[in-house]
Write a structure and sequence with these properties.
heterodimer; A: Rossmann fold; B: alpha+beta; Beta-Lactamase; 13 strands
Chain lengths: 133, 620
């Protein structure tokens, strides 16, 4: 059976490493990207089963932009065929606000399926990943 | 004999304090109406009832002339002077002299026609003299009395000698008696004695009474002034101690001074030392155009004030000390007063008062305004120091928050890497390795907790005061907190459960506040409950209250420690054993947030058995 593919879009490479080890130890195939552009390229290339997305990378809103692009309702969007991929968003430490989220790109709601506040616990992350795939 | 009247006729009358409702000249005119009336009535009644033989026609004719003249005086002093109070002072003076002359002639003629030495007018004359003594200044009064005395004596003597005809009007005193030189001389002696001894005596009594009244009026004036001063000080003090920022408070001070002093406008300009200009800090009563007329140079505009003295300008449009005379004229500013704002070491600016008509400030007002501007200066200096400190404090806080935040990223990464090692994902560890890595992990864990507390507290302290409260579903809040901590509890082998009622309960607050309360309490419960224990979150409601409880089967708190548990930095001996690195900020912070939401927090605990925190909020 083919392992589920998880794409981690996150710029803290040490954090990516611990996520990678944890998920690989639990039978996932992990890919990673350091920024949104590379992440979107990889989405097309590997067609992941789950995307773990950090809110803040180079810019404060980079993660948001990636999620809005992936979940765009525009019929001409180049990511249309990827809009069903579940997204787990990791929020930055300073943005501890209760962002509302919903799987749909819809107005005020952030178009993601789940989100976790940093500092994250790998155990909890693993639970969420299992739930989403 | 030189002119006995002072140059200005106004000086004839003793000056009254404050605004007079009726000038002396006007009172004199009103008294004349009464005098003429009494003469007419007395003549008619005397002739009819007691058969006096006063020549009615002559007396009425005299009265008619006086009435006509008095109408003119009345018109001039009551109508024309009222509209134009500053009109032709020379004419006013002449008319006033003329009034005295008319009275003098009228009284002399009346004395003659009503019977000379036997005339009843002789006695009424005394009243007239006393009244003039009250109304006139001492020297003028003496002159007037002397004039009357001379003519009365002269007429009586001329009548006695037969040089002018004697009108025998009295039916009581016989002609022989009236022609008896002894009688006439004695009567004149009495008359003159009373005139020169008694009337000045009465006059001085009345004057003293008048002075008392004046003193009382002066005292009343002083009280009113003091009262006004107190009111101003009180208002300014209130303005200064309000919670507004520096500039709104200066605006308030300017407004208050403008209102209380009754001036057109007030401004505060502060000295910018680099440019040597006076920059506007606050203004009221002045147009935008005037305020922004151009840079105000410190040494060109009312410069004396910057040397520490009040600088007064009576006419701003011509005074060289005014930098913008043309603009001041257009603005309608006439007089200007600049007071130094004396700080602790130097003059920091000026407080300026603008009037729309010529106005001098009394020494009293100057003293008072100087004291006020001194207070103002100290206040401005203090406020500036306070602002600078506050800015520094904010910069410091921002820096600490940034550093704490920056620290958490790498710590989290290290923790993650340690966690995968502990889990054995990268190969089996020896027992010693496992223990050492576990220590590192927990050490980082406590630093992370302290950082979170620090960030929480700083965020809380720098939160916006106008943050809006919204209705919160407590069930949802509790459920979210339990979801957030479920993994950590399970990892430690604890059961974390909730007992929620069916109905949802609503509280007013912010999600952030509620989350901080619950997260702190649950973190504590997890930390201080040994493996295998349980944590239960409960929710219940009474008529007026909502009660949230967080109960654990942890280490508990000793009875003697319970009162101190919410003190900042307090930690129990047992807590230190479990986590030596905690800082004791959590519960103090929780209490503050709970109280901000209008709630209270209590704790029940059995040492070694468990602890229950009870949060009570008013039901919304």
């Amino acid at each position: 059976m083919e392992k589920p593919k998880v794409l981690v879009i996150e710029d803290d490479l040490d954090l990516v490493e611990s996520i990678r080890i944890t998920l690989e130890a639990n039978n996932y195939e992990v890919y990673s990207a350091e920024n949104g552009t590379e992440g979107l390229r990889l989405v097309k290339e590997i067609h992941p089963d789950l995307i773990i997305l950090d809110v803040m990378m180079d810019t404060i809103t980079e993660g948001f932009q990636v999620s809005y692009q992936l979940r765009s309702r525009d019929p001409k969007s180049e990511y249309r065929e990827y809009s069903h991929i579940p997204i787990l968003m990791l929020t930055g430490i300073s943005q501890k606000t209760h962002m509302k989220f919903s799987p749909e790109a819809d107005g005020d709601f952030l178009p993601v399926d789940e989100f976790m506040e940093k500092p994250i616990r790998l155990e909890a992350l693993l639970e969420k990943v299992k739930k989403l795939i | 004999m030189g002119n006995p009247f002072p140059q200005r006729i106004g000086a004839l009358f003793p000056e009254m304090g404050g605004e007079e409702p009726l000038s002396k000249e006007r009172q004199w005119i009103l008294l004349r109406w009464a005098l003429v009336g009494v003469v007419i009535v007395a003549t008619l009644i005397g002739n009819q009832l007691i058969h006096l033989k006063i020549p009615t026609v002559t007396v009425l004719l005299l009265c008619a002339i006086v009435v006509l003249l008095n109408i003119l005086f009345h018109y001039y002093f009551f109508v024309i002077k009222k509209k134009h109070p500053r009109l032709d002072p020379k004419l006013t003076d002449r008319l006033t002299y003329f009034q005295f002359a008319i009275d003098w002639i009228f009284i002399t003629l009346l004395f003659h026609y009503t019977g000379g030495i036997a005339s009843p007018v002789l006695f009424y004359l005394l009243f007239h003299v006393i009244l003039s003594g009250v109304l006139l200044e001492r020297r003028a009064c003496l002159l007037y009395v002397t004039l009357i005395a001379i003519t009365i004596n002269l007429i009586a003597l001329l009548e006695l000698g037969g040089y002018i005809p004697h009108v025998y009007s009295s039916s009581f005193i016989s002609r022989d008696v009236q022609n008896n030189p002894f009688f006439v001389l004695m009567l004149l002696l009495f008359f003159n004695t009373v005139l020169y001894i008694a009337s000045p005596f009465i006059v001085s009594l009345l004057k003293r009474l008048g002075e008392r009244v004046l003193r009382l009026m002066a005292l009343q004036h002083k009280i009113e002034q003091d009262n006004q001063e107190l009111r101003l000080l009180n208002q300014v003090a209130r303005g200064i101690s309000s919670t507004l920022g520096l500039y709104p408070r200066l605006d308030f001070i300017c407004n208050t001074i403008m209102e209380v002093m009754g001036v057109k406008g007030v401004a505060i300009r502060l000295l910018a030392e680099k440019t040597n200009r006076l920059e506007l800090a606050s203004a009221c009563g002045l147009s935008e155009g005037y305020i922004n007329k151009g840079p105000v140079e410190a040494d060109k505009s009312l410069a004396k004030a910057l040397e520490g003295e009040p600088h007064f300008v009576l006419d701003a449009s011509t005074d060289p000390a005014v930098q913008y005379p043309e603009e001041a004229r257009k603005e309608g500013i006439v007089s200007m007063l600049a007071l130094p704002l004396k700080g602790r070491e130097k003059v920091i600016g000026t407080l300026r008062l603008y009037t729309n008509k010529k106005r001098r400030f009394s020494q009293y007002e100057l003293n008072f305004l100087s004291a006020l501007s001194g207070q103002c200066a100290i206040f401005i200096e203090n406020a500036k120091i306070y602002d600078a400190l506050e800015r520094q404090d904010k910069a410091k806080t921002d820096f600490i928050m940034l550093m704490t935040h920056e620290l958490k990223g790498p710590l989290m990464a290290i923790q993650g890497l340690l966690e995968v090692m502990l889990k054995g994902y990268v190969g089996a560890l020896t027992e010693k390795q496992q223990e050492l890595i576990g220590r590192m992990y927990r050490r980082i864990e406590s630093v992370m907790e302290v950082s979170t507390s620090l960030l929480d507290i700083y965020q809380w302290e720098s939160r916006r005061p106008d943050v809006k409260w919204v209705p919160l579903s407590i069930k949802e809040q509790i459920q979210r907190a339990v979801d957030l901590f479920g993994a950590s509890a399970r990892e430690k082998g604890l059961s974390l459960s909730v007992a929620l009622p069916d109905e949802d309960l609503i509280l007013m607050g912010t999600e952030d506040e509620m989350e901080k309360i619950l997260n702190n309490l649950i973190t504590n419960a997890i930390k201080y409950t040994p493996k295998g224990g349980s944590i239960l979150l409960g929710l219940s409601a009474s008529e007026s209250q909502v009660i949230v409880s967080v109960k654990d089967t942890g280490i508990g708190i000793a009875n003697e420690d319970i009162p101190k548990i919410f003190d900042e930095f307090f930690r129990t001996h047992e807590a230190k054993k479990i986590d030596p690195y905690g800082r004791g900020m959590g519960l103090h912070f929780v209490k503050e947030v709970v109280e901000t939401l209008g709630g209270t927090i209590r704790v029940k605990s059995n040492k070694g058995k468990g602890t229950e925190f009870l949060l009570t909020f008013p039901k919304s």
